[in-house]
């Protein structure tokens, strides 16, 4: 798990064209959900293309601790023999979710309506992140939580012996909170209703329907209203995990800012609740096209083709697009530094409670490398220096945050001087093949 090991300092050198095909790993959000819902189904779920990053491996380990049989068949092929809704055993060990907010919050939801007690912990980053956003609604089901001050991990959840269904309006745009409530609702008799004012990624809703749960989604004046009927028997599924658009963002953005590049990123999930970055890049003038558009496993998929784009312009990113690209703002800010004019990113308060405070982490590293950044509580602007205009030459802190580390590695590829990070080890949480994949395209990454 990241944060427990030795830091890995890394440097990215300015490089020539990036070319070829970038086969990025499976989607992290869908991978977590496949394992968790597989563990709550009756029978064997088969998963191909699972992301074998540390975050997801920690979720696999947790599902074993709750009694599911989780088998790694090699090559991204996994099977999960589930124990059924309400069938979780009480783990006899602390559940360590490493660096993963998704892992810990979804698993808390999945166990909260069962009469078992579980203690959760994580690495130094996860143990700083807010958990009350999940334990508040879980208390409505009858679960109790005792954690550190400020609702932080380590934390013990005493699941509800007699859960009741709830109606809950999610106060922050968060698919993790929405999903935790839905997963808890699975073992509550009756209808659990979750309302979200802004649409967030909908993988849980899609996958619950796929597993045979009774779930409806309505767009109303109060927002998206999701209604789930509790105590279903979930039917095991065969799941092909699409490739992760949040990982695709790195080779795509690297190609846009590196002279002469032409990179194909095949088979990327383009669920509209996830594709905001690509829309934004196209609005900035990026030469980014969708080829071979198709549907796979109920999700829209395309091959992305990104070519060097010397004429990108700064834009105001619509605040209502934030949820559909929330993990992509760090790398977008690197592209913004290589565009002309100012890029304004508003409505992004959530960036401050990710693996790091991502506005602060990016602002520090961008400034150290010669880029002007202004920020407020829920917005930031990046002053573009034009293509190739980033001076570079400095070392950035990654704050145990994979997206920060990878974003600065991308920045180095198009900068005037190399860019370094103090610790690239968190990259393994979501994109374990980042270094060989980028090197295969022509990037020059070095471990110090
Ligand atoms: O549900 C999910 O799989 C995720 C939801 C998002 O978090 P929030 O729910 O905190 O916005 C996102 O940042 C995270 O990487 C994955
Ligand atoms: C925010 C992220 O993940 P998590 O919340 O699962 O730690 C991310 O992957 O960018």
TrEMBL record:
Its EC number is 2.5.1.19. Keywords: Amino-acid biosynthesis, Aromatic amino acid biosynthesis, Cytoplasm, Transferase. The active site is at 327 (proton acceptor). Residues 1-24 are annotated as: Disordered. It holds the Pfam family EPSP_synthase. Phosphoenolpyruvate binds at residues 28, 101, 129, 176, 358, 403. InterPro entries: Enolpyruvate_Tfrase_dom, Enolpyruvate_Tfrase_sf, EPSP_synthase, EPSP_synthase_CS, RNA3'P_cycl/enolpyr_Trfase_a/b. Pathway: Metabolic intermediate biosynthesis; chorismate biosynthesis; chorismate from D-erythrose 4-phosphate and phosphoenolpyruvate: step 6/7. It catalyses: 3-phosphoshikimate + phosphoenolpyruvate = 5-O-(1-carboxyvinyl)-3-phosphoshikimate + phosphate. It is found in: Cytoplasm. GO terms for molecular function: 3-phosphoshikimate 1-carboxyvinyltransferase activity. Residues 16-436 form the Enolpyruvate transferase domain. HAMAP family: EPSP_synth (MF_00210). Belongs to the EPSP synthase family. NCBIfam families: aroA. Catalyzes the transfer of the enolpyruvyl moiety of phosphoenolpyruvate (PEP) to the 5-hydroxyl of shikimate-3-phosphate (S3P) to produce enolpyruvyl shikimate-3-phosphate and inorganic phosphate. This is 3-phosphoshikimate 1-carboxyvinyltransferase. It comes from Ruegeria sediminis. The gene is aroA.
């Amino acid at each position: 798990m990241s944060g427990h090991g030795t830091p890995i300092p890394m440097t990215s050198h300015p490089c020539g064209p990036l070319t070829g095909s970038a086969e990025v790993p499976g989607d992290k959000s869908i991978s977590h959900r496949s394992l968790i819902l597989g563990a709550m189904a009756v029978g064997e779920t088969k998963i191909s293309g699972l992301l074998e990053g540390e975050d997801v491996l920690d979720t696999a380990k947790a599902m074993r601790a709750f009694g599911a049989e989780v088998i790694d068949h090699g090559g991204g092929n996994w099977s999960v023999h589930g124990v059924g809704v309400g069938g979780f055993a009480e783990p006899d060990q602390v559940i360590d979710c490493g660096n993963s907010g998704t892992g810990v919050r979804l698993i808390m939801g999945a166990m909260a309506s069962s009469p078992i007690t579980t203690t959760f912990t994580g690495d130094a980053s996860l143990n700083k992140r807010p958990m009350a956003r999940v334990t508040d609604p879980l208390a409505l089901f009858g679960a109790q939580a005792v954690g550190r001050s400020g609702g932080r991990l380590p934390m013990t959840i005493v699941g509800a012996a007699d859960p009741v269904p709830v109606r809950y309006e999610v106060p922050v745009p968060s698919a993790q909170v929405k999903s935790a409530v839905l997963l808890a609702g699975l073992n509550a008799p009756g209808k659990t209703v979750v309302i979200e004012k802004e649409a967030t990624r909908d993988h849980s809703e899609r996958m619950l329907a796929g597993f045979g749960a009774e779930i409806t989604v309505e767009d109303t004046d109060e927002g998206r209203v999701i209604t789930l009927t509790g105590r279903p028997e979930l039917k095991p599924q065969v799941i092909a995990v699409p490739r992760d658009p949040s990982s695709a963002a790195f080779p795509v953005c690297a190609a846009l800012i590196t002279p002469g590049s032409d990179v194909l990123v095949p088979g990327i999930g383009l669920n509209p609740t996830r594709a905001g970055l690509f829309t934004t890049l196209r609005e900035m003038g990026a030469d980014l096209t969708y080829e071979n558009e198709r549907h796979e496993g109920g999700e829209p998929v395309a091959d992305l083709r990104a070519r060097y784009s010397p004429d990108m312009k700064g834009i105001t990113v619509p605040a209502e697009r934030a949820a559909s690209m929330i993990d992509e703002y760090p790398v977008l800010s690197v592209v913004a530094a290589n565009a002309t004019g100012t890029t304004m990113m508003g409505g992004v308060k959530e960036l401050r409670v990710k693996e790091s405070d991502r506005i602060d982490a990016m602002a520090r590293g961008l400034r150290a490398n010669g880029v002007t950044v202004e920020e407020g509580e829920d917005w930031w602007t990046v002053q573009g220096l034009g293509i190739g205009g980033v001076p570079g030459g400095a070392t950035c802190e990654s704050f145990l945050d994979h997206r920060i580390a990878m974003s600065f590695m991308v920045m180095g590829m198009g900068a005037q001087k190399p860019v370094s990070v103090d610790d690239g080890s968190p990259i393994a949480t979501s994109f374990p093949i980042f270094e060989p994949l980028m090197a295969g395209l022509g990037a020059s990454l070095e471990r110090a």
